[in-house]
Design brief:
two-stranded antiparallel sheet; 14 strands; binds adenosine monophosphate; binds magnesium ion
């Protein structure tokens, strides 16, 4: 279909991924929910998309974002993909509870370029298998808030524009109610899309996908001839982006929880928020997904798993690349890119210059060990360090500003030794403590979406009070800014948080 403008929904729409045809996606309609109700909308994202101020109240908007009412110019589809789940080939999966509505074209001056719009929880699709195609309010609140929390932290992610609820019952471990999140991204392509066509020996489809990524410029690939070189260039960029994403997750203590290859974004976005968790007390081996009995997706395994997943992508591209050595060589650059990104991440977190990655890596790992020893709160520890640096006199023999962090980390010889080395490293930089501390406070957040904060918002929402969602959305979209009066949101988790169980069925 040609791109069309919709006066009610004032953007121009066209088929995005859907224009690749029925090999890749099945035209589909949502199954309506009853008595739709707005829970929250993300005005900041709406503005970035170029939507007018009153967009939420335009006629038909709730029906589009809750019930997938088709947009003029775009045909809704469910896409097919496959994947490895928990390290095992799972065969065909696909959008079992997601519906791709279409692609919006930005009006002049909009911050964001063309974006795909997807509804999560819009009903069964041809790929639902045994599932009901629904999402529950609980998990939808988590996805909605966490997308924006990640974006606020500067971490690549799919975004969330709206959260709509219905009183319709959805059965999980217990009876819950349905909700729909609208997700926005330049593309929802997953490693699994490529694995799917490779598993079917459909080389033509693989080439088509690679060319689509190139034409749409999702990965800003360098100019390459089609075929082998383009596929290698794609793999190279995905390796880089994934490595950077992993360093960013590790930097804020984000645990994804279910890093199956079908949950890996080709664009290097954080995708599919299910059993995720921001670390409270720092435990490198933390497993946030209660269904992950082996700890395959434990926090400290994430970079290694990402590398493993990239091998699945490399394997899928083999029919096009047709060169094992070249593929493995590209895949093996992951460690270099990850170490580099992690070193830079630690340098920023510690307030050291980007050139000091070796020193930063050593000091950062030692600090993380100190945190792990005490199970000190990850977010609070880094923020306390940032504040301490800001308040530091700059004299190596004056450690009063660091007393609070020392207390949090259990003090002792290891702490004293670390602090001595750290202050020495800081003294060699040309900046002032105030500037360094301020820079660190723009890297080490004060607010993250802790499990218990999400849980409180969920409990209130179930009683019909959505105000806590707004409070969190506001705090998490500016997570580096101290907000007077909101100190409890920055505090370590209370003991009851331990009892919150998060599983794949979320
Ligand atoms: P996930 O663990 O959420 O990444 O889902 C894995 C696969 O199962 C994907 O293909 C999903 O679309 C599908 N799926 C998950 N939950 C449901 C559901 N409630 N109904 C239908 N399909 C689902
Ligand atoms: Mg998924």
């Amino acid at each position: 279909m040609d791109a069309l403008h919709n006066p009610a929904l004032p953007l121009t729409w066209r088929d995005g991924f859907a224009r690749l045809g029925t090999t890749f996606a099945t035209p589909w309609q949502a199954t309506p929910l009853h008595d739709l109700q707005w829970v929250s909308v993300n005005h900041r994202l709406a503005q970035a998309l170029g939507l007018p101020q009153d967009w939420q109240h335009r006629p038909g908007m709730l029906e589009v974002l809750g019930n997938g009412q088709p947009l003029p110019g775009a045909s809704p589809v469910a896409t097919v993909y496959s994947g490895h789940q928990f390290g095992v080939w799972a065969g065909q999966l696909g959008d079992g509870r997601a519906l791709l509505l279409g692609e919006s074209c930005p009006p002049p001056g909009a911050e964001l370029g063309p974006q795909e719009w997807q509804l999560k929880g819009a009903g069964r699709t041809p790929y639902s298998r045994m599932g009901d195609g629904r999402a529950v309010l609980r998990s939808s609140i988590r996805e909605y808030l966490c997308s924006e929390a990640m974006h606020g932290l500067g971490i690549p992610t799919t975004r969330a524009l709206s959260l709509v609820a219905s009183p319709d019952t959805v059965l999980r471990e217990e009876a819950e109610t349905a909700a729909v999140v609208s997700r926005i991204a330049p593309s929802f392509l997953r490693f699994g899309h490529f694995e799917h066509f490779a598993s079917r020996d459909n080389v033509q489809a693989l080439v088509q996908l690679i060319d689509y990524v190139d034409t749409q410029n999702f990965l800003a690939l360098p100019p390459t001839p089609p075929g082998r070189e383009r596929a290698l260039a794609l793999l190279e960029v995905v390796v880089q982006r994934t490595a950077r994403l992993m360093a960013q997750w590790q930097g804020v203590g984000f645990c994804h929880g279910v890093m199956n290859t079908d949950n890996m974004s080709l664009l290097g976005l954080t995708l599919d928020y299910g059993p995720f968790q921001f670390m409270d007390g720092f435990d490198p081996g933390h497993i946030c997904n209660h269904s992950d009995h082996q700890g395959r997706y434990a926090f400290d395994q994430q970079p290694r798993i990402a590398h493993w997943n990239l091998f699945c992508l490399g394997q899928a591209l083999m029919p096009v690349i047709d060169d094992v050595q070249a593929t493995v060589d590209v895949l093996n650059t992951f460690t270099v890119h990850y170490d580099q990104a992690w070193g830079e991440q630690l340098a920023r977190k510690l307030g050291l210059p980007a050139s000091a990655t070796a020193t930063a890596s050593a000091l950062g790992e030692r600090l993380l060990n100190l945190m792990a020893r005490q199970q000190a709160d990850h977010t609070v520890s880094w923020r306390t360090l940032s504040n301490a640096v800001r308040d530091w006199t700059g004299r190596e023999d004056d450690v009063t500003a660091f007393a609070e962090l020392g207390r949090q980390l259990g003090a002792g010889d290891a702490w004293d030794g670390w602090l001595k080395d750290y202050l020495q490293a800081m003294r060699t930089t040309t900046s002032t403590p105030t500037l360094q501390g301020d820079a660190m406070r723009r890297v080490n957040p004060v607010y993250v979406l802790r499990n218990h904060l999400g849980e409180i918002a969920i409990r209130r929402a179930r009683e019909g009070d959505f105000s806590e969602i707004e409070t969190l959305l506001s705090l998490l979209s500016a997570p580096f800014d101290d907000r007077p009066g909101f100190e409890p949101y920055a505090a370590p988790a209370p003991p009851w948080a331990q009892s919150i169980a998060i599983s794949c069925s979320s």
